[in-house]
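User: I'm putting together a small comparison set for a docking exercise, and I want a reference complex before I start. The sequence is below, and the ligand is adenosine-5'-triphosphate. Could you produce the 3D structure with the ligand included, as structure tokens?
Assistant: Of course. I'll restate your input first, then give the structure tokens for the complex.
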Amino acid sequence: MSHEIAVLPGDGIGREVTPAAVDVLDALDVEFGFADCEAGDAVAEEQGTPLPEETVETVREADATLFGAVGETAADVILPLRDVVGSYANVRPARAYPGVDALQPETDLVFVRENTEGVYSGIENEIAPGVTTLTRVVTDDASRRIAEFAFDYAEERGSDVTVAHKSNVMRVTDGQYLESVRAVGDERGEEYDEALMDALAMHLVLRPEEYDVVCCPNLAGDVLSDLAAGLVGGLGLLPSANVGDDNALFEPVHGSAPDIAGQGVANPAAAILSAAMLLEWLGEDEAGEQVRTAVEGVLSDGPRTPDLGGDASTDDVTEAVVDRL
Ligand code: ATP
Ligand code: MG
């Protein structure tokens, strides 16, 4: 059976690294149908909207979406698209690779970030001149759902869960989150650690090897996963998944990188590793592992793009990955 994939390169280096990921998928012994679609700054200029209805439909109907990056209009594209795929979990692995300079070469962890509420509720107001508020929404449903996801994910990896929170300050909202996570943990008979997110940030910098799966409220997941990106050697390496019940969207953590766009030197590893996550989500575990191993080999032996100290192009690296498949 063929997997139908919506391909949404977007802007800037999204247009360079997304085709690289498609080339890699094409080289596998797995059948795909690719539906190209547009979103972002360029299409906004042509059509007056950064997210054409046609793109929304293509993403809705696809089995999964491969997303590149979007520039100025990012918030108007990626937030609605996460809704379209019903994604409630943002999965961000951060690991160091042999052959790549990293602040903490033992890092190998995965952030499971709640993706629907918290301070991203969008409920912000100026209640009087110079006085503003933000409503942080935390529900039992969403907290249980992210806890179930994190425990399932850890079970598959054979790893431990750490639950990040700040319930000593946000007593009601993070109190709810923690209560819900604990309820799920008790029901399932799970053993896990709880950590205050500020202390956790320090421990992650000093001893990242002590952590596996970190379950986070929305904003904490955003901040802590970028911190971890700094530990492993840069944005060009970090893939991510936005996962819902029956649809998902995969994207490199990096943005459109206007400073290097059009030069053909963007590191395609993050996009290709996002494609590996897509394969695993589709149940193509063997192919996913194959891609990951090929990327690891290239990161270790070269060729490497300039962000990793090499002088290879995006195409050179992509060809090297395809050769290893
Ligand atoms: P955006 O607003 O789209 O996020 P940005 O200017 O913040 O754009 P990012 O894509 O977030 O750019 O990248 C931040 C820095 O990391 C830039 O200097 C960029 O060149 C570099 N970078 C990001 N991704 C890659 C990549 N895949 N390969 C090489 N360098 C990258
Ligand atoms: Mg950016």
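The chain is about 45% helix and 20% strand. Residues 13, 17, 69, 71, 235-236, 254-260, 266-267, 270, 305, 307 surround adenosine-5'-triphosphate (ligand 1) (CB under 6 Å).
User: Thanks, that's exactly what I needed.
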